[in-house]
Amino acid sequence: MSFLKEEELKNILPINGPSVEEVKKYLNKYKNEYICIKIGGSILEEKNLFKTLIKDISILKKLNFHPILIHGGGKRLTAKLSELNINSNFISGLRVSDSKIINIIEDVFVKFNKEIVNELKNNSSKARSINSKENNVVYVKTLSKNLGFVGKPDKINTEIIKKIIKANEIPVIAPLGINSKNQVHNVNADEIATATASALNARRLVIISDVPGVLDKNNNLISEINSNKVKEMIKIGEISGGMIPKLNNAINIAHKVKGTVIIDGRVIHSILYELLSDKGSGTLIRK
Predict the structure, then answer these.
(1) What DSSP letter does each residue of 235-253 carry, written as one string?
(2) What's the rounded Cα separation, in Å, for the pair 203 and 30?
(3) What does the pLDDT look like over 86-110, one tens digit per residue?
(4) Cβ atoms within 10 Å, residue 134
(5) By C-alpha distance, which of 14, 48, 111 is closest to 266?
(6) pLDDT per residue as tens digits for the range 105-158
(7) Does 28 score more than 90 pLDDT?
(8) What CA–CA distance (Å, rounded) separates 62 from 125?
(9) How do strand 283-286 and strand 260-264 relate by DSSP bridges?
(10) Contacts by residues 248-256 (CB-CB < 8 Å, ≥ 24 positions apart)
(11) CA neighbours closer than 13 Å in the CB half-sphere of residue 29
């Protein structure tokens, strides 16, 4: 990737991001490697953060990396259901998606999916929608009768993803999937991201949320951690709440993905600092 000259790098990189000298060191590291990026939380809803993040992902593309974007959108869905006076029920943190609301869920996520694709295009990056209505890659098994149309990824069609990347486009995957009967299901975006990164043997799975990463008992950021230490911290209660499933997912795919990173999307250019600087920006989870 040395064909990117210093002047070109200066034009591509943000002034307040990693330096050109640092970035040069990392260009070959991710050559021809897949980088799965999952975005969720308040980052999707805060306009400026969202726009900056999409710009940063388009920068990765301009540096000739292979970003694959997986997005959530639970807050947007909750707002839409409230607007329609539909109450949401949750079981173990998962939204019950019955026959009454699954079409609304699909419409909200497909529309959001296209918004993200358009925002990437506004940043001179070609992108392609992947959702239950077009280019679907997520095949699921229904989790339980009580949850309705909520699925767990069973198979990811990597061929479609690879074709999109070969066409020099960024795949943008919605949190939707279909089962063997072609029924659309609501799917947890973290699980799609994990399954996709694993199926592609990705170099990195980057989980962008509104937390700094994994913190120790003194609330200091842990920059790198292995599976055994994660298990130990969960066992003694140092890690709790929503961080547990994220870390368990990371551990489960550690033999397939070279590293999973949890970073704070509220920190400007955090993804660029994580991938293109010496200091990084979040917590790297390795085997």
Answers:
(1) HTTSS-TTHHHHHHHHHHT
(2) 7
(3) 998 999 888 999 998 999 999 999 9
(4) 12
(5) 48
(6) 999 999 999 999 999 999 999 999 999 999 999 999 999 999 999 999 999 999
(7) no
(8) 8
(9) antiparallel
(10) 249/190, 249/191, 249/194, 250/194, 250/205, 250/207, 250/285, 251/227, 251/285, 252/194, 253/194, 253/197, 253/198, 253/205, 254/227, 254/285, 254/286, 254/287, 255/287, 256/197, 256/198, 256/201
(11) 16
> Residue for token digits 């008992």?
217
> Phi then psi for 279, rounded to 5 degrees?
-85, -20
Is 187:258 a contact under the CB 8 Å cutoff?
no
How far, in Å, are 54, 119, 201, 228 from residue 124 at the CA level? 11, 9, 27, 42
Q: Cβ(222)–Cβ(134) under 8 Å?
A: no
User: Can you list the alpha helix ranges (DSSP code H) found in the chain?
Assistant: 6-12, 20-26, 47-62, 74-83, 102-122, 158-166, 189-199, 227-235, 243-252, 270-276
Q: Count the neighbouring beta carbons within 10 Å of the beta carbon of residue 12.
A: 17
Contact 38, 71 (CB under 8 A): yes
Find residue 205's DSSP bridge partners. Answer: 36, 260
Instruction: Give yes or no for a contact between 277 and 21, defined as CB atoms under 8 angstroms apart.
Output: no
Neighbouring C-beta atoms of residue 79, cutoff 10 Å: 13
Please check whether residue 109 is in contact with residue 130, taking contact to mean a CB–CB distance below 8 angstroms. Answer: no
Q: What are phi and psi of 248, to 5 degrees?
A: -65, -40
Distance from C-alpha of 104 to C-alpha of 168, rounded to nearest angstrom:
32
User: What is the Cα–Cα distance from 159 to 25, expressed in whole angstroms?
Assistant: 31
